[in-house]
Amino acid sequence: MTKPRILQVGSLAGSPSANARLADTYDVFELWKHEDRARALAEHAQDITVLVTSANMGANAELIDALPSLKAICSWGVGFETIALDAARERGVQVSNTPDVLTDCVADLAWGLMIAGARRMSLGDRFVREGKWGQVHGSIPLGTRVSGKKLGIIGLGRIGEAIARRGQGFDMEVRYHNRRQRDDVPYGYEASLVELARWSDFLVVATVGGPGTRHLVDQQVIEALGPKGLIVNIARGPVIDEAALVAALQAGKLGGAALDVFEHEPKVPDALKQHDDTVLLPHIGSATYETRLAMENLMLDNVKAYFETGKVITPVE
Fold it and tell me: Where is the D-isomer specific 2-hydroxyacid dehydrogenase NAD-binding domain positioned along the sequence (predicted)?
């Protein structure tokens, strides 16, 4: 039996076996292996109905327009700001992502970053590795207690809510800022992001990315968090004005930053790398075997569901 044909934008190297499983089931047109993408699409795009991509690679309007038979975009990852949703909707193209399956691991990492930043774990790790323990008078500067403090969350979606629930286990008071107030949660709502930052000891960024949230956390918000505050970002790098963040750290106007994402990945400012009050990770929020496999399974289930029923399982609303 002839395999259904799909287009794969790029290698899903971050997933345990996605590339192999796609190739076993489908006739995969591997777009990333063609230097002249426009020519390759012109020659091979006519019969492709399903496009597979990731949150990092996305699918822009030009690519969607080049696929006249396209009916579904199945993305590996929860973010969809790199997919031209308006262009897809105009064409009636379904778009799916992989929500829920990565919620707990990303929330866990947010808490790991928070504790690491508050307790200066990166600085302590370097202190030991560099042989300074026992060789230098004193030790690293004192950290900050996490339990019992005030936790502010920007974006109370699936991941933000999971972070908030964990905060209750640390006896923290939790407030959040959202596009709209929720009536189904026990946490305090703050309409002003600046006021949320001013109230918080720890401010976690868990909102969606995209043009609508670019530099949502600006100089005013950062400085409102203050010289004892810690900001954590497990969402998307451009949500924080990185230049303003660096300036505030250097001026002593922000206590610290614990970041899994950056504005111009994989580039990270040297000022962040060299600062003692930062914790820096290479965008690994979902990077556990269990979660990556669950993302892979859901992406494959979406592709299969489209070919069998004409509908994806987890459409982006």
Answer: 112-285
